[in-house]
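WARN no homologs supplied; continuing
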Amino acid sequence: MKFPPEFLDEIRARLPVSEVVAKRVKLRKQGREWAGLSPFTSEKTPSFFVNDQKGFFHDFSSGKHGDIFAFLRETEGVGFPEAVERLAAMAGVPMPSQSDAESAEDKKRASLIEVLALAARMFETNLQQPIGAKARGYLSDRGLGPPVQQRFSLGYSSPERFALRDALAAKGVGADQMIEAGLLIHGEDIAVPYDRFRDRVIFPIHDRSGRVIAFGGRAMEPGAKAKYLNSPETALFHKGSLLFNHHRARKAAHDSGEIIVVEGYIDAISVSEAGFPNVVAPLGTALTADQCALLWGIATEPILCFDGDSAGRRAAFRAIETALSLIGAGKSLRFALLPEGQDPDDLIRLSGPAAMAEHFKGALPFADMLFIRETDGEHFDTPEQRAALERRLGEAVGKIADEPLRRHYQADVKRRLATFFGDERERMGRGDGGARRAFGPRRGGPFPPRGPRVGLAEAPLPPQSKLGRRARSPAREIMILAIAVGHPSLLESHCEELAATEFAGPSLGAFRDALIAAPAEALASSTALAEWLNGAGRGAEYERIIAVAAKMPDWWCMRPQASDADADHVLQQNLLLQQAPALHRELKLVERSLATEQTTEQSELDFARLLDIKAKLAELVDAEAAIDGFGDQSGRTSSAI
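OK structure emitted
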């Protein structure tokens, strides 16, 4: 739900930052502030400070900064709604009132959660009774003894068709509630609804708050139609948006900055018990986009650890397909490939936790796994086969939505193909059937020499004098920041570009970092952002930037009153122009590399990069011309000022 600003302000007013922080950090008074050791880094000298008057904390060792909501999110790994709910309870502030429809829906959800909690306790009791002996034996054989069974609230469902239905009915639960909770199978052709889970080991599935919202069941009968069975989609349970063990794993994952994904419930429990509590599993489906978003909310490169068989490889390949359009700066995946025929549980029992840790440490990057997917089990003895591989890789990389990352992947694919085809050519020439090396370095390459390149570039480079004068100037940096504070919505759409932009002035770079760290509620308007900057101790810098920007010729586009479309256009062009110094540096390096003796392969790659840089510099000239002419006629209208 959306929280009113006055509600959040009330929580802040009732809860001093020091009171919230002190539950995790030992603080001591230091003048008007409190000081302590950073909860984010290991240190011996305090660099973490809390200011109750200004309502924020600042950690000099990690650069983290924010209010009580930000502190809870950073230290506990919870989402904003949960942070608000927990802090509201601490402050004694009632949650905002809801409409009648919302209130009725919440009551219904609460009722279903109570039913599922009751069912979970019944399943747990069954497991420890004589009826659960076979299930206990199965779990013990898998290394999940009584303590583990209790920690993960494992259970067992009776083989009788109406055992759970009758037990819940005796507690006053209606059949309609059981059906809505996904506990009974029903339909027009079913006269009497009956238990969905029968003769199965039961794995409770929790939401991020730790409440049971569904179940997974592993059949005890070898001939069962479905070895694993999950609850159906309900008002509480959407299997593509959840991860098994997420509520237990998120704290450990947040603290370590790493999260591990395995295929099944038992794998997740085994890996967790082996000393890796930061482990989760999908709920019987291929990894979804929503699950990727959950994972990236905790770690930048989750490790996918799938079984070492053909099914595990297919699961990894499907994950690649799902993630291709989603990956970007700070959002990727790594892949831990297990030995053939082993799952994580097998590896831990046979080789121990240390072997598992080594597999996690050696997890392959996304780019490696993508190349393996396209070459796995294929032959490339003919030009047609090699062309098909190149086309498939090009199509896959084309799905990457993040433009800078897509460009880097395209260059990476060219390097890999040059090495891969070169090795294939050597193998065919030797006739020895030697194995191909997909990623290893080699000298030489398949491309014929192109002859001497006098002057290196086949066309003159764009004039550098104007770009040199205007790129990465303090004035341009101030313009970028002024547009951002005047139009906070652009911070979200250009966050990654802004984060990657070089700032000549360290103070302006620090102000940029503060803007990127601003909470979502501060981006509601330019006024809200100004208030947040003032509260974060950046008010003086904000005023100076606005004052300097007001004297610039293009001040009209920086004002909050200017249209977002106009401001966005100017911001994009200026961010593009900020790349000029880095491109010129790279140009010199490429020219220097081309002037030295090198392999044909490297020469080809350098020449391709040279042409790419030339094209980008030409874009910069166009961008500068666009800014110079932008707004001369209809662009700078009175309505935009």
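The chain is about 50% helix and 10% strand.
OK
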